[in-house]
Task: inverse folding
DNA sequence: GTGAAAGCGCTAACAG
DNA sequence: CTGTTAGCGCTTTCAC
């Protein structure tokens, strides 16, 4: 690795001057600037980020804390974060918390030790979040965050839940099954309540169960047939895709016998047969916005992103 | 951020001694060690990685260069890399090249400027790889790499292609369509040749086309019906899932009318109906192995991972 | 066993 | 406009 010193020597100037041109600040005569730039190119010089970070106490790295990138929804956020971070000269260090507080804490410490400019985090439950913030001070931006008091981008999860309910109501839902993820995670809880309230209001009966409860296929079948379920509302598209497959294995026709709605609009939701009706959270956009907030390119500290209904084939009407 | 100096002062020792205990090297009296450790805990001290990196000229960061993490196959590799990197105290900086040489080069430079210990990269075509290595010197480990001369982990792609052919032959394939990704990428080319040779050997007729050519649905339909295709072999599962959906939209029964094989065994391949028959490359394992190679935990510089056939419902017999 | 001090590569005063 | 220099936080000789 060539250093700034070597560049300076070769160009016949001091390191300060070289530093001025690579950072494009301070006065440098145009001709010496040109000359230094040539030397830099010739030597293939790149500043050592560790040295810069040590001095500035801030690195060009963004810490990205996700529950699990294997869910395409988070992958989309990650790509959004990465693409725009790169555009602004930032790198992203990834951390999968697996929804574990310990891992999340560890990653935040790690991000801190790398002098990350900040961390972008997707939602934990409320209590966890406050604990995390208190844990170490580093700028935080939340994606899918909970309260207006925090910096971040989010969508209206309660409304999203209502939207799901509306869709199935139009599809003449009579007996609904809501399959949800861990309700201690605020986003899922809000959606759940949105659909629940909407269904109740329309006097439509429903059952609900946790995603983990459908692992057992025979139990799942009993649940479906026992309550003559004709509609399934899922917390997210991964779940919806899984459920679609299971329901089809049981020889039900989707959407005629059973209609299914998902959430997130992950790319695969459009590839199934039938294609899955879902609510688009614009995950990629959420990611790009989060970076803007973190880098203060964006004026507003908090923003709500519009939800988009993707009516497709897995629901009736 | 507390520094080593503060710890030293509070503990009433020199920074050198503190450094010795945090790195667990050199002689330190047991009692002073205990004392220092207490102070560290009390101050919640964590070493500044930038400073360490500056001195050591090597950071605790692994650069991970992927074509695109939105393909679950690469996501699996990424998770494998991340999980085991974390276990060894390393972080991972991600870079999506989008199969672009320019972006790949940029990322390698960036990884270098961050003093990454090395980069884990998934395959480009042969020419590109050599160019990349020449570009900057930093330890490289390839996943799905091409030649024995390079460090890395791979599977036998040619054999994988043969395996795909064998599966459909057992399913009584008469008119095969091979839908492949860019053949300038060695892995895809090898698989393609594996299937092609196997099919030729068995005197089974086949057509082939590039993945991008099936975007147009009507053209796809013509291709299928025109050649009375009864079998489709795909370069990867994402493609297979997409094709499955398209074929079903066209009212073909899978596998009776048309059987489909994928490649990779991504999680979604098991969630479709019918479930997709595929070849498992053990992507996660590939990722973990790559880290071991990079950190020299693993003795062998190169290793070949076994392919596993996942016979499921999308193929006949 | 422990401390003093040099120096990793860079930036930002400050001096000229 | 340009150079000199201190110092970011850490590790590692080298003394003692």
Result:
């Amino acid at each position: 690795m060539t250093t700034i010193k070597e560049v300076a020597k070769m160009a016949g100037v001091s390191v300060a001057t070289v530093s001025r041109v690579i950072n494009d600040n301070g006065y440098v005569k145009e001709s010496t600037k040109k000359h230094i730039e040539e030397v830099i190119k010739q030597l293939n010089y790149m500043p050592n980020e560790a040295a810069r970070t040590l001095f500035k106490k801030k690195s060009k790295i963004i810490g990205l804390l996700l529950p699990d990138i294997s869910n395409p929804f988070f992958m989309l956020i990650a790509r959004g974060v990465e693409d725009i971070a790169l555009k602004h000269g930032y790198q992203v260090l990834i951390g999968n918390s697996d929804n574990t507080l310990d891992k999340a804490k560890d990653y935040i410490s790690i991000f801190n030790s790398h002098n990350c400019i900040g961390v972008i985090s997707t939602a934990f439950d409320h209590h966890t979040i406050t604990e995390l913030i208190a844990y170490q001070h580093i700028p935080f931006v939340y994606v899918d965050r909970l309260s207006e008091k925090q910096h971040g981008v989010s969508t209206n999860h309660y409304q999203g839940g209502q939207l799901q309910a509306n869709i199935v109501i139009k599809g003449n839902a009579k007996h609904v099954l809501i399959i949800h993820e861990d309700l201690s995670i605020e986003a899922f809880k809000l959606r759940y309540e949105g659909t629940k309230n909407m269904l109740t209001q329309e006097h439509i009966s429903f059952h609900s169960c946790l995603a983990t409860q459908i692992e057992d296929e025979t139990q799942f079948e009993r649940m479906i047939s026992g309550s003559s379920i004709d509609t399934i509302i899922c917390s997210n598209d991964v779940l919806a895709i899984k459920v679609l497959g299971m329901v089809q294995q049981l020889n039900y026709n989707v959407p005629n016998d059973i209609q299914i709605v998902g959430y997130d609009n992950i790319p695969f939701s459009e590839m199934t047969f039938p294609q899955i009706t879902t609510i688009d959270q614009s995950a990629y956009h959420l990611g790009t916005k989060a970076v803007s907030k973190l880098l203060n390119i964006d004026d507003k500290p908090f923003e709500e992103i519009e939800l988009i209904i993707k009516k497709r084939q897995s629901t009736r009407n």
In short: The CA atoms of residues 54 and 111 of chain B lie 14 Å apart. The longest helix of chain B spans residues 72-87.
